[in-house]
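Hello K.,

You asked for the raw outputs rather than the summary table, so here they are, unedited. I folded two proteins back to back in the same session to keep the settings identical. This is the first:
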Amino acid sequence: MSKSFLAAAAMLLTISGRAAAAPAAKPVELKVGPAHVPGIVSFTLSTSVNGDSVVVEAVVDSAPLGAAEKGAVVAAAVAAADPTGTWAASGTAGTLAFHHLVGEVWQKVDVVSNYTDTTGAGTKLKATDSAVAFTLSMDETAAAVGYDAMGEPSYITVSVTDTLAWTRALEGGETAATLLDAFQAFLVAEAGEGVQVVRNSPSSLSVILRYEESAVNWQVTDLGLESASKGEAAKLDDVGKLIRRGR
């Protein structure tokens, strides 16, 4: 584990020589997959406490790279994104939680947006004890080419709540609208209680989940769509009654 990763974790406990209080609510969690090819992991972190946000770009310049090592690279990039040291990531085995220092309190990061990963890996975003909106968006001008960075046939796969799994082999020329149409049809047919589907536009779809613990896993391997696909998880204030399910 890198020194920068450990330093980022330490910031959750101490700032300017004084203990910083940690918030009770849990932040959105990110789990990165192992890197198969060199690439870039980029995303935006935001907190609803005061609207602050920061853009993070982590360069993975060697592959293959395990999830834990890749997570350390991402954590170091979070720490480096703001020279004042008010953003931090901590975690193990490639699973990271994010916090932002506001005053003397480390506030949870409750929105992870514009997430892209071009290292040939899958991604998981998880939210606990809150309703959450997961959004998958694609550049409406992008189109699939039918193969990945290694020349193998490409695919898109999305798993909602670890039970609803949708996978589609991609063919050259397929667009965001075509793919999200198919994904939406799958969700409407298969999703049960606690799942709401919102089509924001032809190139963007949100899944609102009202479970005590919710997660979405996704991976887009196609060279034409990988960098054009963005994921987001945003905790919602309107919690209401959350559904307990098997984990």
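The second followed immediately with the same parameters:
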Amino acid sequence: MDVEQLELNAPLRIKFASMDKNENLIGDAGPEYNMLFPNLSTLLESGWIATGSQKIHTRTESYNHRTWILSHENLRIVAVEHETGIEFLIDTFKDVSVQVATAAVTSLISFLWTKWRAARKSRGTNFVESTYVKETLKISPDGSKTYTRELLPGTVSNKGIEENMANALAELSNFESD
């Protein structure tokens, strides 16, 4: 998996981002990463493993960000540290059925949303509630790339996250045929 290429071209991005009411990003994330991924290799939900990876420059920032490879059987997702939250880069799934990928990834993201919110709340009142952000890559006929964005408030339930993820992954399964 080429982490830097995925950072540039991920067809699906899920972010847990600190945003104010005007959708401006707030750079207040920090200790949460060590609560999500406390070791170089951390066992997560339902057999997922997070392994520390390389540092990369993101498509919008020119300094290094820590990354983790989240893996489960043939599935791979990249998690990227940002000062405003965490981002999950999700590529199309090869050699895995849509149903298996949807169940596994939806369960993982829902689990991480719960852990992330708990880590944020453990800081007391010194944090901004995270917003769940889904960004979907759109490629126009001329080859230019843009992302469409959908925001869900920090109060969204795990059921809401799971429904949103199921829809996002259904869109992703059609990405290669576009």
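Helices lie at 3-9, 32-36, 98-121, 158-173.

Happy to rerun anything if the numbers look odd on your end.

Regards,
P.
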